Amino acid sequence: MQRNKTHSNQPETQRLVGIFLLVISMLMPLQGVAQPFPEGHVRRLTPGDVIQVSIPDRPSMNATLTLDAGGKVSIPEVGDIFLSGLTSTEAELVLRQWIRLFDPSIERVEVFLQSGGGNGVDFFLMGEVVRPGMYSFVKIPSFMDLLRAAGGPTNISNLRQVRLIREAGSKTEVSELDLSVLFEGGDSPDVALQSGDTLVIPALLAGVSAVPTSTGVKVFGAVEVPTVVDIKGPTPMLDVLMLAGAPTADSEISEVYWVHHVGNLPEARVVDLRKYLEEGNPVGNPLVYPGDTIRVDYYEEPWILQAITFTLVSMAAVATIWLAYDRVVNE
What angle do CA 257, 263, 268 make, to 5 degrees? Predict the structure, then answer.
């Protein structure tokens, strides 16, 4: 009899274990399964490139395609597909997803670069751009064309100290360019690009870390890159924050702490940057001077909201466990 009693308790124990595992799995955060494309200085597709698309499962769709001026290829059964800036492997993945909308049975798509549309006009972009690599063009591009082909600068790129590296015979020439003017309405640098040139976009932190604190603005707190920003004279606060990578998504821009020296004495005040962004009130975007300090606070929910959120989450978890247990017991 004792053996039968033990045996009869096993299903109930298994149910309780199952409920416990179910609750744990529900409370665990979801883990991302998507893997980023591998980064590297590799050849990426650009307008004018000619590619051979091979589809073993449907040879009738094999085609030789040319990327148009907008970086797209056209497949009659699917439509226009943007491929500029991708490697051949990445293009295979993109084409496969699009073509499977037409025929889900297709398992493999192969892409081979037949010829570069740039006819040897190649450039290399390294550092803080979205897609570092080698890019070919039909003709000598502008600096903006190069940055666009690479997906643009990252949010920590230092466009004021871009290095241009050029092979001149047996010598290597390195010059420094300020490309920030391209995004500020200024003129492009008066430098003629040549095929084979390499542009290195440094990180903002690396570019300004050596700026003396007496001639720069110390920026820290809820900004992308806490650093010392180099300015030459009075500069609007928002411009200084943008040079530090901009305030983060969890920043409290209505409370920006600013320390400015009046004579030999520091004077502190709190600036409501939101007034400038929402109302255009210049009081929310004062002029900042070399030697000043800016701290952007992180946003914090009022304690009452935090308590309510914690209580609701706890009640929901308890209710879920109880309902699951009650359902199993009453089955």
Answer: 15
Residue 262 phi/psi, 5-degree rounding, is -110, 105
* Dihedral (CA of 158, 159, 160, 163) sign: positive
Distance between CA 21 and CA 270 in Å, rounded? 50
Residues 224 and 178 in one domain: no
Q: What global pTM score does this model have? A: 0.39
| Angle between the N-to-C axes of helices 2-27 and 303-329, in degrees from 0 to 180, rounded to the nearest 10 | 150
Say whether pLDDT at 270 is over 90. yes
222 plus 177 within the same structural domain: no
DSSP letter, residue 105: T
**What is d(CA 14, CA 162) in angstroms, rounded to the nearest whole number?**
64
| Residue 11 within any structural domain of the chain | no
Number of domains in the chain: 3
Q: What is the largest CA-CA distance in the chain?
A: 96
Q: Report the amino acid identity of residue 101.
A: L
Contact criterion met (CB below 8 Å) for 221 and 298: yes
Does residue 139 sit within a domain? Answer: yes
CA nearest to 111, candidates 73, 68, 150, 151: 73
Q: What is the dihedral of CA 236, 241, 245, 250, to 10 degrees?
A: -140
- The tokens describing 270, both together, are 């709190």
DSSP state of 247: B
Q: What is the pLDDT of residue 22?
A: 45
Q: Is residue 287 very low, low, confident or very high in pLDDT (cuts 50, 70, 90)?
A: very high
Which residues span the domain enclosing 178?
122-202
